[in-house]
Amino acid sequence: MTQLSRYILFAVLAFSFSVSLAATKTTSQFEQKQIEQFIDEMVKEHQFDAIKLRTILSKAEKKQTILDAISRPAEGKPWHEYRPIFMTESRIREGIKFIKKNRQILEAAEKKYGVPASIITAIIGVETRYGRFRGSYRVIDALSTLSFAYPKRAKFFRGQLKEFLIMAREEEMDPLKPLGSYAGAMGQPQFIPSSFRSYAIDFDGDGRRDLWDNMDDIIGSVANYFSRHHWRAGEAVITRAKMTGSAPESLLKGGYKPSFKAEKLKAHKIDVAESIPSDRKVALIALKQKRGNEYWVGFHNFYVITRYNHSPLYAMAVYQLSEAIRSGAAL
Q1: Contact at 8 Å (CB) between 31 and 149?
Q2: Coil, strand or helix at 281
Q3: What is the C-alpha separation between 237 and 297, in angstroms, rounded?
Q4: What strand order describes the sheet that includes 238-243?
Q5: Interval 164-207: pLDDT, tens
Q6: Closest CA to 142 of 173, 103, 101, 183
Q7: 3-state secondary structure at position 145
Q8: Which residues contact 129 (CB under 8 A, 6 or more apart)?
Q9: Which residues does 92 contact at the CB level (< 8 Å), separation at least 6?
Q10: H-helix or E-strand containing 37?
Q11: Is 240 left (phi over 0), alpha (psi -120 to 50) or beta?
Q12: How far is the C-alpha of 164 from the C-alpha of 160, rounded, in Å?
């Protein structure tokens, strides 16, 4: 192919991409330049065919609804508004049904990975309402939009677009077909592409990793994810804390990763609902209520939940939902 032919081909595909990506806005020259750079990287680093990749990307659509959704994540809400989204009677009831329906798979996953059935169930319940809402965006549209039209986090999503295209090649998927969230999370457990490649497993041994419809793979992959992030079987997740006066900033600034020894709680006159070894590392977590904060002491397993979604609100919702499900299912 001559240089002129390559130029004409790129011009045609770039125009096609700008048209398809212009569901709400036209593609800028900057975005087109980023797209071509991305293609060059995929060719050099991962041996993709440039023409085929341009054809795939030319069919991606830029969606303003994706840009709108990512600008208002639920995790931006205070705890007293966030909690009611997930802690509902119907979600608890459906979680109990999910456990009863999939008890054999959940027990096998818990036996192999040490992750409680209630935690696995709560993750799927929070993420997709037990598979009911898996996302309606094409993953290629979500990741392309955020890679080339969302500068704030373009680097991250461009990395996920790379992972998705590699994943589609490895799994022999048509990259234009998988559906997911506005952020490109996929299947019932909502794995982003890098998580799919790293943690999704073929739990039933049928030769495929299917996080959309295969419950063995879905449950097994969530359990594997927690295991790989060092879930400690049998250990507590979090416990309520009480104190007189305001919480010490020196303890709060450590965030939700256990970073100080429990003996400091006593030194600051912070009471907890259960006995904690003085040398155990913990975290002090403040959750905003309508009137002031409520305080919790988080352990290692609470931090592990935040590896799934880096938010203490998310981790607390998963934990509380899991406890309600566990109690209702009499596990």
Answers
A1: yes
A2: strand
A3: 9
A4: 260-261, 281-288, 293-298, 238-243, 270-272
A5: 999 999 999 999 999 999 999 999 999 999 999 999 999 999 99
A6: 183
A7: helix
A8: 91, 94
A9: 321, 324, 325, 328
A10: helix 29-46
A11: beta
A12: 6
Residue linked to tokens 């609100």 = 313
CA quadruple 198, 71, 256, 119: dihedral sign: negative
Distance CA 287, CA 265 (A): 17
Catalytic residues: 127
For the full predicted model, state whether its pTM sits above 0.70. yes
Q: How many residues appear in the chain?
A: 331
pLDDT tens across 215-226, in order?
999 999 999 999
| Residue recorded with tokens 């955020």 | 146
Going by pLDDT thresholds of 50, 70 and 90, the confidence category of residue 8 is very low
The DSSP code for 28 is P
| Residue 151 burial (CB count, 10 A) | 11
**Domains along the chain?**
7-62+136-180 (1.10.8.350)
For the chain, how long is the longest CA-to-CA vector? 77
Q: Tell me the two tokens of residue 193.
A: 């592409």
Rounded distance between C-alpha atoms, residue 115 and residue 107, angstroms:
9
* Spatial distance between the Cα atoms of 39 and 57, rounded to a whole number of angstroms: 9
Mean per-residue pLDDT over the chain, rounded: 91
d(C-alpha 99, C-alpha 196), whole Å = 23
The pLDDT of residue 92 is above 50: yes
